[in-house]
Specification:
Layout (H helix, E strand, L loop, with lengths): L1 H6 L1 H25 L4 H10 L2 H36 L1 H6 L3 H52 L14 H23 L1 H18 L13
Length: about 220
C-alpha cells in the first residue's frame, strides 16, 4: 500500500500542474497568432485537439497495463514475504529449489507486465512527436506556398509578411510543447489510476469479526 501511495505523488506534483499549462499556454499563443494570421491560428486550433485525443486513447490502455502491473507486484510482494517468514520450514522439507522456481515465475510475470507499461509509454511519446511534427510541418508548408504566391489567404489584406511567418513558426513548437510535456507526464496519471483503484479496493474491504470479539 505504501508503494501505491507513492505512485500517486507525481500525479499531483507534475501531471496536474502540467494540465494547467497545457491549457493556458496554447490559449495565450492563439490570442497572439490570430490577429497576425488567422489561417495559422486555425491550423493550431484544429491540430491541437489531436494530441490529447490520441494521448487519451493510448492512456486508457496504459492505465489497464498499470493496473495489471500493480496486481502482479502485489502477488510477488506477498509471495516473497510469505516465503521469508517460512524459510525454516522450507529448508526442513527440502523445498528450496521448488520455491525458487515459483518465485522466479512470479518475478517473470511482473517483468512482462512492467515491459508492457514501458512499451505503452514509448508508444504515447512517439504518437505525440508524430502529431506535433505534422502540425508544425503543415504550418511551414502554408507559409512556404504563401511566399511563392500559390496561397493567398490567412492575412488581413497586407499579404503574408516575412515577419509574420518567422514569428509564427518560432511560436509553433512552443504551442505544442506543453502538450508534449503533458504526454511525458501522462504515464504518471496511468500509474496513479492503477494505484488508486488498488487503494480503493483495499479500503472497500469489509471489516471482519475476530473470534475473540475484537475488530480487525
Amino acid at each position: 500500500m505504501l508503494e501505491q501511495v507513492e505512485e500517486m505523488q507525481e500525479f499531483f506534483s507534475k501531471y496536474l500542474p502540467q494540465m494547467s499549462l497545457a491549457v493556458a499556454v496554447p490559449i495565450i499563443i492563439l490570442v497572439v497568432v490570430f490577429p497576425i494570421n488567422w489561417a495559422a491560428g486555425l491550423i493550431f486550433l484544429v491540430t491541437a485537439p489531436l494530441v490529447p485525443i490520441f494521448m487519451a486513447l493510448v492512456g486508457m490502455k496504459a492505465a489497464d497495463a498499470n493496473r495489471k502491473n500493480f496486481k502482479a507486484l502485489q502477488r510477488l510482494s506477498g509471495h516473497f514475504y510469505d516465503r521469508l517468514q517460512s524459510m525454516t520450514t522450507i529448508r526442513l522439507f527440502n523445498r528450496t529449489n521448488a520455491e525458487t522456481e515459483v518465485l522466479h515465475g512470479a518475478s517473470e510475470v511482473f517483468r512482462k507486465r512492467t515491459m508492457d507499461v514501458l512499451r505503452l509509454a514509448f508508444l504515447s511519446s512517439a504518437v505525440l512527436e508524430f502529431f506535433t511534427s505534422i502540425s508544425i510541418a503543415i504550418t511551414a508548408v502554408y507559409f512556404g506556398f504563401s511566399y511563392i504566391g500559390e496561397l493567398n489567404f490567412g492575412h488581413y489584406g497586407v499579404g503574408v509578411t516575412l515577419f509574420a511567418g518567422l514569428f509564427i513558426l518560432i511560436l509553433a513548437p512552443e504551442f505544442y510543447q506543453p502538450l508534449r510535456d503533458l504526454g511525458t507526464f501522462y504515464h504518471a496519471k496511468a500509474q496513479a489510476v492503477g494505484a488508486a483503484e488498488s487503494i480503493v479496493e483495499f479500503l472497500a474491504l469489509e471489516v471482519a469479526d475476530l473470534p475473540n470479539g475484537q475488530k480487525l
